[in-house]
Every structure is written in C-alpha cells, then in structure tokens.
Amino acid sequence: MKPVAPPPEVLIKAALQMTQKQEAREQWTAQYGHVRPVIAADNWGKKFVAIRNRLAYSETWKFIPDFLLDYVPHVFGKDWWDAVVAKPEGERHQVFQWRVGCLRRLQAGVDAGGKRMATADGMTGAYLSFAFNLFAIEDNSRLDDLLLRRLKHPEQFQGALHEVFAEATCLRAGFAIEREDERDPATRHAEFTATHKNTGEQFSVEAKSKHRPGVLGQAGVAHAHEKLRLTYGRLINEAAAKNPKHPLVIFLDTNLPFRSAHRVW
Prior knowledge:
Layout: H1 8-32, E1 40-43, E2 46-51, E3 54-58, H2 64-76, H3 78-85, H4 94-107, E4 110-112, E5 115-117, H5 122-140, H6 145-152, H7 157-172, E6 175-179, E7 192-196, E8 202-209, H8 233-240, E9 248-253, H9 258-261
Parallel strand pairs: 8-9
Antiparallel strand pairs: 1-2, 2-3, 4-5, 6-7, 7-8
Helix pairs in contact: 2-5, 4-5, 5-7, 6-7
C-alpha cells in the first residue's frame, strides 16, 4: 500500500521546526561553545535541570543563574558550606565571598516584569563564570573528588580554579578531556590530555596561575598595581619541564588587575 503524503501545511510546519532547532543549536554553540546545552524543564511547580546522570530541582529557580547560585553549595556539600559560614567574614573561602557578593548585587537589582535585572560586577561575574564552568565539566566531562578537594582548600583553590577554567575552555572548543593522575610519582604529568572530537588531534594541557599576596585567598597584603612583578618564566619552564607526550598548550593566568595588564605588552 502506497503511503499517504502529509498535507503541504504539515511539511511546511515540520521544516520550520527543524530550522528553528538548528538555529537554536547554532546560537548556543556561538555563545557557549561545544558543551551540551542546559537541559531544563518545568513540572509540578518546580524547575528541573539535568546534570549528566542526575536531576536537580527547585521551586524557586526561574532562570539558569538561579540554578547556578545553588549549584556550587550543593556540589561542595552542606557540611563544608556550613563550616565556612561559621568562620569570621575575613576568613571565609573565596567562592563563598563571591556568592555573597553576587546575591547582594542581585537583591539590589530592579524588578522588571518578574525578572530581577542587575548589572554584573566583579563578584557576580567571577561566581557565575566559575559555577557555569564547573557545571560544564560535570555535565560534559567528569567532576572527580580530587578536583573538588583542591577547590575547597583555600591554599589550593587558585590553581584548581584556573584548571577548571582551562578544562571548560577546551570543552567549549570541542575537545574531550582526560585528566592525568598527578598522584602517580613515577613521572611528571600535565593537568590533562585534550583530544579534539572532530580531528582526533591531542594536546597536553598545563594550567599555570601566578600567585600574589592578598589575592584569591593567598596570605599577605596585596601589592600596589604598579609594583606587581611581571615575570612568568618560572611557570612556563615548570610546565615545559614535564616533557609531555603531546604538543604542549599552557593556560597562563597572570593574575593581574586590568589597570596593570597593559604593562605586559
């Protein structure tokens, strides 16, 4: 029996829907890179968000930033978060301080048609960028206990934070990530191997961040911007000395304020 062709209006509607889906995928890739789009749904008065193989939900989330505000405390764990809250304000973890600053900024915003409108500042940008990068790693790659422990540790946070940025950047660029076991004392390792999904080309990736007193949880008093040192050779040499098995890519965080960055050139 010969199949009956759908009516022309059905074909037109189907073609339009496919075009819209393709345009949405292209727009997401243009804005966020080759990471899986956030999968979210509204049901039973709650917003559900898929995170790799688990579901998170809340009755208060309306937009993705609402989810990201709760995401980091959930991943870090309630006991850890409560312990940070109990500390004096000046001793609290950097991520906690970012989140508090973000919340204050949002609460001071203007309500426009059910949306809280606020201009992003440094605290807001730092927290939401970190939260989305961490979410992208868990959702598109893997988030292991070793990385989480380093992120929670005040003295190890800066290096782990930059590694999160490097991993998320590679994921957005279309690479698959395979972390190397740096606990293996037999050889020196790069942070991870990045394999391009389309070409199969592999790179060894190192993430190096310049530590400065009084910045990102480091002990001491922050130096005046005109007195900051601009030497990074040791960090580059340390990365190259690991003799990686693939071409080496170094993500180097100079950790400079904007008003000092021009001195690098």
